[in-house]
Amino acid sequence: MAKTKFPEGFLWGGALAANQVEGAYLEGGKGLTTVDLLPTGEKRFELMLGKVDSLRPVEGFFYPSHEAIDFYHTYKEDIALFAEMGFKALRVSVSWARIFPNGNDEQPNEEGLQFYDDLFDELLKYGIEPVVTIAHFDVPVHLVEQYGSWRSRELVKFFEKYATTLFERYKEKVKYWMTFNEINMLLHLPFVGAGLVFKQGEDQNQIKYQAAHHQLVASSLAVKACHEIIPDAKIGCMLAAGSTYPYTCNPEDIYSAMEKDRESFFFIDVQSRGEYPGYAKRFFRDHNLNIQMEPEDEELLKNHTVDYIGFSYYASRVTSTDPEVLKQMTGGNVFGSVENPYLEKSEWGWTIDPKGFRITANQLYDRYQKPLFVVENGLGAVDEVTPEGEVIDDYRIDYLAKHVAEMAEAIEDGVEILGYTSWGPIDIVSASTGEMKKRYGYIYVDKDNEGNGTLKRLRKKSFHWYKQVIQSNGANLENEGGK
To answer: What is its EC number (predicted)?
Structure first.
């Protein structure tokens, strides 16, 4: 494999979400949050789509977020392992309901604020830069009950207060922020992305795009507050990215692929360029959607755009306008995709496409001309512990090495990339399936899908590989010892 070059000060690290690692779901004054209502099993996906019967945990179901991997109590030990790998950055999220248990409380919860103070101090002790997502698939349940979550304009001011509280409290400790994790997921998993619950017969598109507008305004207000309170900070947005390929060179397929990409770009177009694109306005007209806006919204969006584009990349997608071809869909990926005959798939049906990573990075940089930050990338796979207590995850090393090599090519292409925080540097609860067996980490956590296990941590082979990658600033991607 060719030697690769990365800029000095490149932020190598990993990425986590509060609801997938912390556990302690009602400890320390924390309120109930939307992810706390997602069990494992068949019911999970129905709820993620917004078909929610109960806004309380239901007896008889297993809720993986309630304990997760107990990072709330083990973060010091886990961060020491990240430091051993040489992390320069750790992306984490703050749980809104830890700071404001109901989402709209008069005063923040001091115990919650102190937890993140301690967490950031622990990172800084090792020279690890905190990269903080303000909202990562996390809405306090009280706001869903009282206001219908992001369908209500009221959430804009609650979010602004929450974000401002974080900036004021952590202005000396955190210099990299992001507003909403994978903001485009609102269209695909509306309960996860925006806490939306639908009633029979409602126009779901109208509700989703109105909620999107509220999140976009809230994001602009957070950018404004961040720039005022922490002038030397950078605040970005975050996209679930992955280019859509046309299945053929039929112009109908080409246009369909462009439309699929625009479905996601819409959010970043507004956050980065500061206005609603013409194609979105046409979509609203064609679908009789009436997005309620306040007089000051356009000016807010225009004047307070993000500093960088954060994005996740796991897979590319394929679309077609041929009904026969559309029968060949792959499972596993939320976005849905026609099977790509040129590519392999993961155990969960996700396309493995390292070249697509370079394509996506170039596409985003060409479009926005702002620095990019790769804040998620990784392979979910079943890992086996050998009798000797080892996890030989060569498949993960192979996946990551090929993606990092393509990221280096993107940088060579002229794409400005701030850093790379691979997803799930320690095994965590899967956001999509709630499983533990879908593992991403360099560190194995002894826990199964039913919640059994000691939670003991174990370094995988990839742990030592990633340490060498960081030490060499991406120059050495070799899998020492081979396969």
So the answer is: 3.2.1.86
On whether the CB atoms of residues 128 and 89 are closer than 8 A, the answer is yes
The 10 Å Cβ neighbour count of residue 455 is 14
- Across the strands, what pairs with 14? 90, 422
3-class DSSP assignment, residue 4? coil
Q: Which CATH architecture has domain 11-471?
A: Alpha-Beta Barrel (3.20)
Per the rule left: phi > 0, alpha: psi between -120 and 50, beta: everything else, 104 is alpha
- Whether residue 405 contacts residue 4, with contact meaning beta carbons closer than 8 Å, is answered with yes
Give the N- to C-terminal CA distance of the chain in Å, as an integer.
Answer: 15
Domain edges within the chain: 11-471
Q: What is the pLDDT along the chain (483 residues), one digit of tens a residue?
A: 445 689 999 999 999 999 999 999 999 999 999 999 999 998 999 999 999 989 999 999 999 999 999 999 999 999 999 999 999 999 999 999 999 999 999 999 999 999 999 999 999 999 999 999 999 999 999 999 999 999 999 999 999 999 999 999 999 999 999 999 999 999 999 999 999 999 999 999 999 999 999 999 999 999 999 999 999 999 999 999 999 999 999 999 999 999 999 999 999 999 999 999 999 999 999 999 999 999 999 999 999 999 999 999 999 999 999 988 888 777 655 677 888 989 988 888 788 999 999 999 999 999 999 999 999 999 999 999 999 999 999 999 999 999 999 999 999 999 999 999 999 999 999 998 999 999 999 999 999 999 999 999 999 999 999 999 999 999 999 998 644
What is the value of pTM for the model shown? 0.96
Inter-axis angle of helices 461-471 and 71-85, nearest 10: 50
Active site residue 376: yes
| Active-site residue identified among 122, 182, 376, 406 | 376
**C-alpha distances in Å from residue 410, one per residue of 15, 370, 417:** 21, 14, 9
Residue 369 corresponds to which tokens in the numbers above? 């001309």
C-beta of residue 372 within 8 angstroms of C-beta of residue 308 = yes
Q: Tell the residue number behind the tokens 């869903």, with chain if given.
A: 144
